[in-house]
Specification:
142 residues; mainly alpha; 48% helix; zinc-finger; repressor
């Protein structure tokens, strides 16, 4: 409270995060750049039905996970893996887009293999209702 005017002030405390260093594949180091992370996710989700707030939340989740690792240096491969994991949860097309650039796909076969791998891993949420009832022997048409 201000002793001169009796105005009451409110302050908010936040955790001060240490600046993380990204160790690139060539061994160079650079500060972790939130904007670069956001751009990568946004580019992968371009023209997909993914709201911007979902991308922002994914970026925040990735940054929180990286800070919880308690290491001042983070390999770029770890960041890439975390981005792939988040995109896999958000949108399968965005995931394949990101993976194709990150892993530097050279031909269509690599895309096909990744899509087949993705479809094997895809599981329906047990809380999700069936859109149509499952087919039974009696419901099949001849």
């Amino acid at each position: 409270m201000c002793v001169d005017c009796d105005y009451r002030y409110t302050t908010y405390e936040t955790i001060e995060r240490t600046e993380l260093q990204v160790v690139k594949k060539d061994g160079t180091r650079q500060p972790l750049n939130r904007e670069k992370l956001t751009r990568g996710l946004t580019k992968a989700c371009e023209k997909r039905p993914v709201p911007l707030n979902r991308i922002d939340r994914a970026v925040e989740e990735i940054l929180t996970e990286l800070h919880h690792d308690n290491s001042p240096e983070i390999p770029s491969t770890l960041i890439g893996a975390k981005v792939m994991d988040k995109l896999h949860q958000i949108d399968p097309v965005a995931y394949v887009r990101y993976v194709s650039v990150y892993r530097e796909f050279d031909d269509v076969g690599e895309f096909i293999a990744e899509i087949q791998n993705l479809s094997k891993r895809a599981q329906r949420d047990p809380m999700q209702r069936e859109l149509l009832p499952p087919k039974t022997e009696n419901s099949k048409r001849s």
